[in-house]
Queue: 3 jobs
Job 1
Amino acid sequence: MADEITVTEDGHIAVIEINRPPANYFDRKLIAQIAAAAADLQAGGKRAIVLCSEGKHFCAGANFGSGEMAADRERAAQELYREAVRIFEIAVPIIAAVQGSAVGGGVGLACAADFRVASPSTKFHANFSALGFHQGFGLSVTLPEIVGLQQAMELLYVSRRIDGQRALEIGLVDRLVPDGTQRSEAIAWAAEIAEYAPLAVQSMKQTLRAPLVQKVRAVLERELSEQARLWATEDSKIGIAANLAREKPVFTGR
């Protein structure tokens, strides 16, 4: 586990750091480790958790060029989403400290947290339409819940890439801080939350987010079904190949 994530505990709070720099791509194994660590920290009495990453970027989502996603994409995504639900089910508040870029499923991971801290240079890019397939990681419900339906459609339909300032303006980011201070701000915020009655805070989170968790469980089935269908299209092959080659895709509608 130490090679994939690092867990640091300090009093009533803890930090889970992803250790796959520079892009911090995830797969089922990594998401399972995050979920298991968060569950263990909750069981151990931690009152707030900071989720962050080592290196230049927060998370570039799944890597379609290698590993499980390249070998058997549908099965890998199904297993990954099964683990992702466990993160949404954590009762302890989670704050994501987002540096560099959050791309694709990386936006989904950031949106699984209760709050997000970013800087003006942070970039959010839900780039699914540029890849030729449906969004995943529960973004179909988390993104509209956070920024509203109209903003979510704008971000998803044209794979809109936005910076931290714009993310703050639409509500995707909760606090905007100078570059390099996202983690320290998230830790300070977690420490503030930890000063309050933990049973009450966790009860509040479960009440406020229970409908969201139920929606995420349901929508993941729809997301996976549509992803599997669209992964078989020519457009998806074009989009993924163009992304890996860092080229602009030209879609055919097939």
Job 2
Amino acid sequence: MRFDVVTLFPEMFAPLLTSGITRRAFETGQVDVRLVNPRDFSSGNYKRVDDRPFGGGPGMVMMAEPLDQCLKNIQAQRADAVPVVLFSPLGKALNHAMVARWADSQGAVLICGRYEGLDQRFIDEHVTEQISLGDFVLSGGEIAAMALLDAVARLQPGVLNTVGSHQQDSFNPALDGLLDCPHYTRPECWADRVVPEVLLSGHHARIERWRREQRLAITAQWRPELIAQARQAGYLSAADEAFLVRHVR
């Protein structure tokens, strides 16, 4: 898959593409990321990409023409027609289902806005989808784009050390959309806190049931709406429901 990222700050992506375990996806081309600066498509000596907003007000607005020329150049180089995505407060909040969809796609053109935003005419003309990271505002779309790219990269085959490791992540359908359970490693006792006995028992069935119950308890405490969704989807067994009745208030 190929993601063309339109950004005024391509240098921000270097750590993502060259560091950590997900770099494997970028280095092998499983996730082909190409960074394009709209300033390269602006005319004039100053390569201007923003101007004052009509109607007055604070800040600057990214101009439509450099973005339009940048996008047309990208589209001319691609053999496929892919969505044009803008990171914006108007978009749906990014979640696991969306990441999984993008991880199985041909990619997209990702538009990273800056300043007060983009000229609405460019959005109306070209943008096919908008994505938000949540109910807060960032200085630009780059961090949101990196979050999407990182999440997509770790779902690619062979990227994580353990096959299927991502299936044990919070929100994954393999966990029925629940939050993940706590994890422990050596030493067995740290700061007077000991590892739960069941994890040392070697009894795989007990361990799996403990982990399931921990996922249920944590999800019910912190994200009860996910319990409701799992119940509606028919993911909860009679044993799950009995545990929730006994231990979750």
Job 3
Amino acid sequence: MNLSALVITKNEATHIGTCLESIQFADEIVVVDSGSTDKTTTIAEKLGARVMVHPFEDFAKQREFTASQAHGRWILFIDADEVVTKELKEEILETIQSADTSHVGFRIPRSNYYFGKIPWPAKEKQPRLFLRTALTGWHGAVHETPVVKGTIGDLQSFLVHYTHDDLTSMTAKTNQWSLIESALLYKTHHPSMQWWRFLRIMLTKFVDSYVRQSGWRAGTAGLIESIYQGFSYFIVYAKLWEKQLHHPDKR
């Protein structure tokens, strides 16, 4: 078995079908679900995935468990709202079949689409393809990063990411993830939150999204997304402030 495609899910019935159809070229597809209440697992099973349920602690641990279920020499991590393009499929197959590759992992360029159809100007790279024996774990409860023994190279073809379907799902995810992120900040004894810290954080995130990433080129959607980035981090740090208020640092 040469390639295992791995997907972690929860209530992804809207996206999971398109995602799994794009990775049918893998020798096996493993879906690890953390308790979906919609038809995510049913759709995944119909599309030939090996589905198992595993309770969610954090993203790093969920990815580690998922990797432990793979049998392929290479493993490809794909999120449920992502799609592997034909060009990326061909590049992945060519890469893992090459006997002289010196890398044990690869970053994949990702093109983001907001509200199902609006492209985000800035592109990013995500480490997603690994030699299974070289991937030793993941680090970070949110925005997790892989721990790899060896060098990581870069693929050229794009992974398509359909993020932020609507404002309702955006705010729901922010509320969920902010609990984890604020707890991590509190655990690392983040300095006491003062009013000016909120302004600095929100402005920094807005400028990064709207200016550095050229969000202005996406029109109204770019402005909404950039303001929302500032709002998302406001929620994280407001929850941190709340924790500090009720449980002062005893250092």
